[in-house]
Design a protein that fits this description.
The complex is a heterodimer. Chain A is 0% helix and 52% strand. Chain A is an all-beta fold. In chain A, the strands form two sheets. In chain A, strands 2, 4, 5, 6, 9, 10 and 11 form a seven-stranded mixed sheet that branches. In chain A, strands 1-3-8-7 form a four-stranded antiparallel sheet, with no helix packed on it. By secondary structure, chain B is mainly β.
Chain lengths: 120, 112
């Protein structure tokens, strides 16, 4: 159980275009999904916290108008990188947190396989 | 002081040995603690979660939590080359939001 999928797994796009990444929890409902970015050999950087039916909460320094997050249901969140530039090239990873479970595994996050974005 | 601190390593251990990975955190009110394994080029995979002081064992893995010392560790017994990866410690902040904070990770190398 607790499987999270991401699509696409990799994408190459031209500078100035927009890219949408989907994150789905396949076998559980997730009240909260997180979006991370990871540059090579660096640590995970939390970009935003996404709660179903409400606006995402962005971490300091993350442009909300550039990284649009929609969490329309308990199983789907999307991240759209708008007007992508080469510096946006990175490994984007989502995670989903179990809903409503108190014990023993509450607050566990499960990560999707990630999306590798290359902007030319 | 960083919120979650880990030694970046690399920690190198021989096959069959016990690997000990350590993590300290600054938020005394933290209640949830997690260890993730991340292979190069892949996303993190949850190994263990621990919520109470003491030890929690799962197969070759043992998580140890000491809230008084704000310290959580992961022991890997009978280390295998396939355990070579970066191990991330994550701590949920107190205050109800349960926003996770990750350490920078410790690189573990298990050599044959």
């Amino acid at each position: 159980g607790a499987v999270v999928s991401q699509h696409p797994s990799w994408v190459i796009c031209k500078s100035g275009t927009s890219v949408k990444i989907e994150c789905r929890s396949l076998d559980f409902q997730a009240t909260t999904m997180f979006w991370y970015r990871q540059f090579p050999k660096q640590s995970l950087m939390l970009m935003a916290t996404s709660n179903e039916g409400s606006k995402a909460t962005y971490e300091q320094g993350v442009e909300k108008d550039k990284f649009l997050i929609n969490h329309a249901s308990l199983t789907l969140s999307t991240l759209t990188v708008t007007s992508a530039h080469p510096e946006d090239s990175s490994f984007y990873i989502c995670s989903a947190r179990l809903f409503g479970t108190k014990s023993p595994n509450y607050n566990e996050q499960f990560f999707g396989p990630g999306t590798r974005l290359t902007v030319l | 002081q960083k919120e979650v601190e880990q030694n970046s390593g690399p920690l190198s251990v021989p096959e069959g040995a016990i690997a000990s990975l350590n993590c300290t955190y600054s938020d005394r009110g933290s209640q949830s603690f997690f260890w993730y394994r991340q292979y190069s080029g892949k996303s993190p995979e949850l190994i263990m979660s621990i919520y109470s002081n003491g030890d929690k064992e799962d197969g070759r893995f043992t998580a140890q939590l000491n809230k008084a010392s704000q310290y959580v560790s992961l022991l890997i017994r009978d280390s295998q080359p396939s355990d070579s990866a970066t191990y991330l410690c994550a701590v949920n902040k107190s205050g109800g939001s349960y926003i996770p904070t990750f350490g920078r990770g410790t690189s573990l190398i298990v050599h044959p």
